[in-house]
């Protein structure tokens, strides 16, 4: 069985009442992947904005494997110390990683964030030397458009992320950089300039699905 672990921040965990891109990916793989698979991870909840805590199970579609390693306000800095144990405990084969926005916004600069990417990869491989990782760059968001210094940090980090992926890729444990959704628009694909609405969820899921199909022959292109 192929075991995939979504790893991310608020765009991945989602909040109460949402489907999440994790659900969109699961629905796609149910139709596109020709073998057994599961979403795995140590967490299952959504973020509850009223409680200001990740305590909600109120998914728009509750009947799917909800496991993940994602957290509202968590980034590469937070996940690097956690990923090894999560991979080991849940026997993850593939990590679908969408991180970086929170790091750059609150915790680390582009260079420091790139260092945490390398730490994350090392920890994941210590737990499973054959783990595969598909990584999404920081996608368009309202702060990057309205705050020029922050936007410059996002651009620099995405360049450093691409370099890290190229440096760390190896045949035994492939590391893949997914392309940002080419038509992603913060006015049409988010509900607040940052967090995806239904359209944005589909586009994030498509970015991962298409990258895995093109690079690894896994499944089919999204929407086929």
CATH architecture: 3-Layer(aba) Sandwich
* CATH class group: Alpha Beta
Percent in helix: 40-55%
> What fraction of the residues are assigned to beta strands by DSSP?
5-15%
Q: Give the number of domains.
A: 1
Instruction: Summarize the helix and strand pattern as letters.
Output: EHHEEEEHEHHEHHEHH
CATH names the topology as Rossmann fold
What's the alpha carbon Rg, rounded to whole Å? 16 Å
Biggest sheet character: 6 strands, parallel
- Measured between the Cα atoms of the first and last residue, the distance is 23 Å
Going by CATH, what is the homologous superfamily? SGNH hydrolase
Shape: globular
Q: pLDDT under 50 segments (min length 5)?
A: none
Strand runs, count: 8
Mean pLDDT across the residues is: 97
Descriptive terms for the model:
224 residues, alpha/beta, Rossmann fold, six-stranded parallel β-sheet, two-stranded antiparallel ribbon, 9 helices, 8 strands, 47% helix, 14% strand
Write a short abstract of this structure.
The protein has 224 residues and is an alpha/beta fold. It has helices at 10-13, 21-32, 76-90, 101-107, 110-127, 142-146, 148-168, 186-189, 198-216; strands spanning 2-8, 37-39, 46-48, 53-56, 69-70, 94-98, 132-136, 175-177.
């Amino acid at each position: 069985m192929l075991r995939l672990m979504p790893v991310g921040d608020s765009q991945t965990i989602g909040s109460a009442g949402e489907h999440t891109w994790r659900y969109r990916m699961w629905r796609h793989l149910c139709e596109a992947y020709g073998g057994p698979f599961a979403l795995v991870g140590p967490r299952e909840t959504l973020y509850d904005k009223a409680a200001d805590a990740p305590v909600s199970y109120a998914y728009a579609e509750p009947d799917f494997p909800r496991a993940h390693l994602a957290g509202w306000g968590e980034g590469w800095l937070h996940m690097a110390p956690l990923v090894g144990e999560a991979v080991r405990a849940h026997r993850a084969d593939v990590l679908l990683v969408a991180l970086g926005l929170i790091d750059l916004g609150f915790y680390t600069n582009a260079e420091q964030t790139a260092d945490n990417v390398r730490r994350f990869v090392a920890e994941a491989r210590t737990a499973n030397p054959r783990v595969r990782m598909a990584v999404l760059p920081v996608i368009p968001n309202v702060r990057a458009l309205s705050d020029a210094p922050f936007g410059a940090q996002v651009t620099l980090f995405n360049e450093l992320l691409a370099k890290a992926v190229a440096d760390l890729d190896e045949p035994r444990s492939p590391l893949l950089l997914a392309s940002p959704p080419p038509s992603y628009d913060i006015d049409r694909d988010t509900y607040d300039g940052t967090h995806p609405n239904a359209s944005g969820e589909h586009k994030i899921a498509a970015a991962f699905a298409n990258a895995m199909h093109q690079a690894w022959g896994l499944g089919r292109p999204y929407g086929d």
